[in-house]
Write a structure and sequence with these properties.
The complex is a heterodimer of chains A (236) and B (112).
Chain A: H1 13-29, H2 34-57, H3 62-73, H4 76-82, H5 84-112, H6 123-129, H7 131-150, H8 153-157, H9 162-193, H10 202-225
Helix pairs in contact in A: 1-2, 1-3, 1-4, 2-3, 5-7, 5-9, 5-10, 7-9, 9-10
Chain B: H1 10-17, E1 23-24, H2 25-35, H3 44-56, E2 60-67, E3 70-77, H4 79-103
The chains are: A mainly alpha (236), B alpha+beta (112).
């Protein structure tokens, strides 16, 4: 959708370079997912250009207008650091949602990997035979739901800091890593001891799904715990 | 006025700025500056993340529009945001009446 308000007075190439340099510095100092960083930078691009256009309208020359705009918007590292809370909340919510969404898929493929007499699948019986995995679910599911809840409207009403949601997401992701490792270990043991207890090709599919989720959950746990930090550069 | 002096009232101010119609982030900063006679000149690092937080809370929603070489993200109130703004106004009226009653009452204890 075209917005007529987006066609302001033209800034000089030198003025545009001042704005572009400032935006590059903010972008470099931001952490988090690439797509989210790009959206933040795009939003700030429009904002700082609007500020420059406002200054230009007062009669200053374009270069001074651009310098005034970036001064008004502030130090790039400070601006980037101010987004830390929202980036944390975004990561926590995305991780929690992905973990909750992937749970049924992982469950279904592993149930499909089992041949009769456990077909039709009886999840309660299966979980009872693997109490460790039941313990993992008892931790992962509530923690993921807490991460989602704290980053939504209820979290806002309770004035929860995004760090709480990040801790819940870290716990959920870590539990999923343990859970998938348990499933893969169980598969390896069964494949050696009683290979006829497995259904092919469902079993390799289940292994691929769990292995993939293990890697993604590990990365999510690192990011949410700050191990793969949302980078905020030291003040220049 | 420094941003930390607005603690607890920032959400209400941002929602009020959007009451008349959609605004982009810098537009919200300008609206607060103009509407307060220059008293509230809030930094980028306060306003933009707060707008994202309010969107995550469901009180405002954003939409992108395109122009030559740039994209604009504009925010507007949701029905929940309209309700939240009304609640903020009610809360402010009670708070400001109470503070004014105490601050305007003169030194305490009142002299005999």
């Amino acid at each position: 959708m075209a917005d007529a308000g987006l066609t302001g007075p033209v800034l000089s190439p030198a003025a545009r370079q001042v704005l572009a340099t400032w935006l590059d510095q903010v972008g470099a100092a931001l952490g988090g997912p690439a797509r989210l960083r790009a959206r933040i930078v795009a939003e700030l691009d429009d904002g700082v250009r609007s500020a420059a256009e406002q200054h230009l309208a007062t009669g200053v020359d374009p270069l001074d207008a651009a310098r005034a705009a970036v001064a008004e918007f502030g130090d790039p590292d400070t601006v980037a650091a101010s987004f830390h809370g929202e980036l944390t909340a975004h990561l926590a919510r995305r991780s929690g949602t992905a973990l909750v969404g992937s749970g049924p898929l992982v469950g279904i493929v592993w149930l499909a990997a089992l041949v009769p007499p456990l077909w039709p699948p009886r999840p309660a019986e299966l979980l009872g035979a693997h109490p460790l995995y039941l313990a993992v679910l008892a931790v992962a599911v509530p923690a993921a739901l807490v991460a989602i809840t704290l980053t939504g409207p209820l979290g806002h009403r309770l004035a929860h800091h995004p760090a709480h949601a990040a801790r819940a997401a870290t716990l959920a992701a870590t539990a999923c890593v343990v859970g998938d490792a348990l499933l893969l270990t169980t598969f390896a043991h069964t494949a050696v001891a009683t290979p006829t207890a497995l259904s092919w090709p469902a079993a390799p599919l289940a292994v691929a799904v769990s292995a993939t989720r293990l890697v993604l959950a590990f990365r999510a746990a690192r990011r949410c715990s700050g191990g793969s930090p949302i980078r905020v550069a030291a003040p220049r | 006025m420094r941003a930390e002096a607005l603690k607890g009232h920032l959400d209400g101010l941002l929602l009020a700025a959007l009451e008349r119609g959609p605004l982009h982030g810098y537009g919200v900063i300008e609206a607060l500056r103009a509407g307060s006679g220059g008293t509230f000149d809030l930094p980028t690092g306060t306003v933009y993340p707060a707008l994202h937080r309010l969107e995550r809370a469901g009180l405002i929603r954003s939409a992108w529009s395109d122009g030559p070489g740039r994209r604009r993200r504009s925010y507007q109130l949701t029905p929940a945001g309209v309700t939240a703004l009304a609640d903020q106004r009610d809360g402010w009226r009670v708070f400001s009446r109470s503070v004014s009653a105490l601050l305007d009452a003169g030194p305490w204890p009142t002299p005999a």
